[in-house]
Structures are given as structure tokens and as C-alpha cells.
Specification:
single chain, mainly alpha, 17 helices, globular
């Protein structure tokens, strides 16, 4: 508990958002009903599961596997980008990021390649991959449920995002220095367990992921994660990033407080009627309050489901706050890298995200104008 409290005391984002929540509470505008508890429970389960897999050595083992199968740095970077893009379609961008960013830094301990650049672009491609899939991220699932429509209704907007990914990926891969990878010593880095313990861990992990993807029985997924942590590695409870979970709760509370202000609520209502304004507002709001709350905020105010989908998908690019996956990526960098590398990550992350924010916004605007 002492370690957890120490980490929270030095968590700038948590302290800042908590201060804002306390300020809003002074005016009586904080309501816990505004918190998406399913999102909080899902995030806790994901963070706990990934922390456990790291503690047991599975992340390092996966890093060794990719290095062994790659002949050069471009092969390695290609594998990371494709894994990030396609896995996010199935297991969500949050799971993809929580796995791939630590994996990237685990690889960097064994071979030399542009770690910060690769981690930044892996986050971008996780956001793109998840946007294309109906189950790739919380906002897509929310929009499908809210509008009661089919994934086919989002086919053309999703195709634009897929085009952006498939055109840009080869360009960035070609710009990666191409070096031969040294052979690494083969050794087992996974903690030794009995065979049935491996099976139990694997089956339970798949069950947790299936629950999180389906968004049914989220609390069960969290309970199963807690049981896994308690059985396999109790010390992992202290390593879970509780700060990001509490910060996300604060974001929901702040969004609820801000949107309760009458003139803001009225202004958002009129914006929902105009497609280009809706697109621009969704993208810009995502930069400061994250795209999941933006989807929940704007959906009741507009019938333009496809445009809102593009707004929150493109809105994932830009700031660290724009998407939960972005925030999770930075938290993983903080946990795995020294201060100088963290600063470089922010610079590279911002540079590449601005590129995709501009390109994505242009494609989305063209779509809105010509539909």
C-alpha cells in the first residue's frame, strides 16, 4: 500500500485532475453517476492482467520470439506495426498498447532500433486498427449500441481510415534504418510452473479478454484478474498503474460537470445539427477530454452516426489525452524508460500524431462534404 500511495503522490496527471474535481465539488457539480464504471472496471482488469504477464516473464519471452524470427530491424518494425494494427481490431487498442509498448522496450534491451519512434507509431496504428473494428474500442461499441445500427453503416468511413493505415505504414517502415539483428542467447525467461498452471493461466486470460471484448460481465473479468494476481504473483498488485484509472474517473466527473453548464449544453445541441461543425467539435473536444467521453456526450445530440464515428476516431490522434490508449502508452513508457526517453517519446508522439490528425481530418472533411 505504501508503494501505491508513493506512486500516486508523484503522479502529475492524477494530482492535477483531482485538484480540478475538488474545485468543481466546491460548486456542487460533481456526480459519480457520470463515471462509466464499466470503463473503469475494464481498465483495471486490463492493467492487472498485463502487469501479471510482465511479472511472469511472458512479455520478455514474446520480445525474444520476434527478434529470433526477424532478420533485420525493418522486419522487426514491420512485425510490431502489423501486430499493433491487427491485434487492436480484436482485443481493443488498450490491450494492444498495454502489450506492445512494453514489448517494444523489452526488445530494445536486446537489439538497437528506433525504440521511441516505433512505440509512438505503434500507438498510432493501434488507434487506427481499433477504429476500423466494431469491437476495437469503447466508443465504437457505444455508438453501435446507441444508434442500433450495423457495422456496415460505417463501412466507407472505416475504409478511409484503413486506407490511411495501409498507405502510411510502408512509408514509415522504409524510413527505418535497416540493420542486421544479432543472434540472442536462447533461454527460458518465463517463470517455471506446472503444466496445469500454464493451462489455467492461458484459459482464464482468454476468458477475461473475451468478456472485455463482449462488454458483458465486466465485473467478472475484474474478479478473475484479481484471483489470477493473488494466485500467481501477489506482489503485482503493487505494480498496477492505479493512477491512470483514478485519472480516467476524474475525466468523467469533469466532463459531467462542464456539460451541466447551461450555455455549454445549449451550444453542443446546435452543433450536433451541422455535419462539419460536429466533425470539428468532436475532433477538438477529444484533444482535451478524450474521445470516449466525447462519443457519449455528442451521440444524444446528433443523428449523424457516421460523422461522429469519424470525429472520435480521428480525434484519437493529437494529444496524449485524446485517447485512453495514448495515455496508456505514455504510462508504459514512464514505467519502462528513463526520463530522457520519456521526453523524446512525447516529442515523437506529438510529431506523428499531428501528421495523422491533419491527414485524418482532411479525409474526414472530404467524406462529410461529398456524402
Amino acid at each position: 500500500m505504501q508503494r501505491i500511495l508513493h506512486k500516486l503522490q508523484h503522479d502529475t496527471l492524477f494530482l492535477f485532475t483531482t485538484a480540478l474535481v475538488l474545485l468543481c465539488a466546491c460548486f456542487g457539480s460533481i456526480h459519480f453517476k457520470n463515471v462509466s464504471w464499466e470503463t473503469v472496471e475494464s481498465l483495471l482488469a486490463l492493467l492487472g492482467l498485463v502487469t501479471l504477464l510482465q511479472s511472469l516473464g511472458f512479455i520478455e519471452a514474446l520480445a525474444r520470439f520476434f527478434i529470433e524470427k526477424s532478420k533485420n530491424t525493418r522486419d522487426l518494425v514491420t512485425a510490431i506495426f502489423l501486430l499493433s494494427f491487427f491485434s487492436a481490431m480484436v482485443v481493443t487498442n488498450d490491450v494492444a498498447i498495454l502489450t506492445i509498448v512494453p514489448l517494444t522496450f523489452a526488445m530494445a534491451k536486446k537489439v538497437i532500433f528506433p525504440t521511441v519512434k516505433v512505440a509512438s507509431l505503434a500507438t498510432v496504428y493501434a488507434n487506427l486498427g481499433s477504429a476500423i473494428s466494431p469491437i476495437g474500442n469503447p466508443q465504437n461499441i457505444f455508438l453501435l449500441a446507441h444508434y442500433h445500427n450495423s457495422p456496415i453503416d460505417y463501412l466507407i468511413p472505416a475504409a478511409l481510415l484503413a486506407l490511411l493505415a495501409l498507405v502510411s505504414m510502408p512509408i514509415f517502415i522504409r524510413r527505418t534504418p535497416n540493420r542486421q539483428l544479432p543472434a540472442i542467447q536462447k533461454k527460458s525467461v518465463i517463470r517455471e510452473m506446472k503444466k496445469w498452471q500454464y493451462y489455467l493461466l492461458g484459459i482464464t486470460t482468454l476468458l477475461i479478454l473475451a468478456i472485455l471484448i463482449s462488454h458483458h460481465g465486466i465485473l467478472l473479468a475484474l474478479v478473475l484478474t484479481v484471483l489470477l494476481l493473488a494466485y500467481y504473483h501477489p506482489r503485482s498488485f503493487q505494480e498496477v498503474d492505479y493512477g491512470v484509472v483514478l485519472s480516467i474517473m476524474n475525466f468523467f466527473l469533469l466532463v459531467g460537470a462542464i456539460t451541466a453548464i447551461p450555455f455549454i449544453k445549449e451550444g453542443l445541441t446546435t452543433i450536433g445539427e451541422h455535419p462539419l461543425q460536429l466533425l470539428g467539435t468532436g475532433i477538438l473536444l477529444s484533444q482535451v477530454i478524450s474521445n470516449v467521453p466525447v462519443a457519449a456526450l455528442l451521440a444524444p445530440l446528433t443523428s449523424h452516426a457516421g460523422i461522429l464515428y469519424l470525429a472520435v476516431s480521428v480525434g484519437a490522434f493529437g494529444t496524449l489525452i485524446a485517447s485512453l490508449a495514448n495515455l496508456l502508452a505514455f504510462r508504459q513508457v514512464k514505467a519502462n524508460a528513463i526520463a530522457r526517453v520519456r521526453q523524446n517519446f512525447i516529442l515523437h508522439f506529438t510529431y506523428y500524431n499531428v501528421i495523422f490528425l491533419v491527414l485524418g481530418s482532411l479525409l474526414a472533411a472530404i467524406y462529410v462534404i461529398f456524402i
